[in-house]
Amino acid sequence: MNDRAPEDPGIEERVRGSFTKQGLMETLGASIAHVSPGLVQIAMPTSPSVSQQHGFVHAGAVASIADSAAGYAALTLMPSGAGVLTVEFKINLLAPAIGSRLVARGRVVKAGRTITLAQADVFAENGGQEKLIAVLTATLMTIQGRDGVGD
Q1: How far apart, in whole angstroms, are the C-alpha atoms of residue 105 and residue 122?
Q2: Per DSSP, what are the bridge partners of residue 119?
Q3: Which of 56, 77, 52, 64 has the alpha carbon at shortest distance from 104?
Q4: Concatenated DSSP letters for 91-131?
Q5: Is 11-143 in CATH node 3.40.50.1980?
Q6: pTM of the model
Q7: Which of 37, 42, 102, 141 qualifies as a FRET site for 55, CA 20 to 30 Å off?
Q8: Helix and strand tally (H, E) in the chain?
């Protein structure tokens, strides 16, 4: 999994603070469910406002929470003052997103000084059961010394 220890002792507070600045996550009704070094979980209740024409959660909403979970997992292993940007991601949609809530579990696969590889598995919860509905792989870049980064 990850081979680096977190460099910022206040990372959970920083991740949660950064998350609150994301207007899209607020629009989706998403929230951070868990933060630990190399791991972040984002939960999103399902509703008609995030659905597509067949009643499933829209792939764009699924991809958004997966990308954020992977990105914040990467951020947990970066130094104080650093930020993260997604360079690329690929998502495989494995099943329709049907359930009462979706949970994206982001984890770092390999953390580097500049580039980090992370993965997010997205599960649909329904009646106490989880079903894997998507897998996202992301390449993320550490950014430093730019306005608004590391706030």
Answers
A1: 6
A2: 107, 137
A3: 64
A4: EEE-S---SSEEEEEEEEEEE-SSEEEEEEEEEEEETTEEE
A5: no
A6: 0.92
A7: 42
A8: 3, 6
For residues 128 and 145, give the distance between their C-alpha atoms in angstroms, rounded to a whole number: 44
Alpha-carbon Rg for the chain in angstroms: 15
pLDDT in tens, 48-73: 999 999 999 999 999 999 999 999 99
Is the Cβ–Cβ distance between 83 and 41 less than 8 Å? no
54: CB partners within 8 A, 6+ apart: 96
Work out whether strand 83-93 and strand 129-143 pair parallel, antiparallel, or are unpaired: antiparallel
Tokens 């010394």 belong to which residue? 145
Sign of CA dihedral 24, 56, 128, 134: negative
> How do residues 134-145 score in pLDDT, each as one tens digit?
999 999 999 998
Name the β-bridge partners of 116: 111, 140
d(CA 46, CA 122): 13
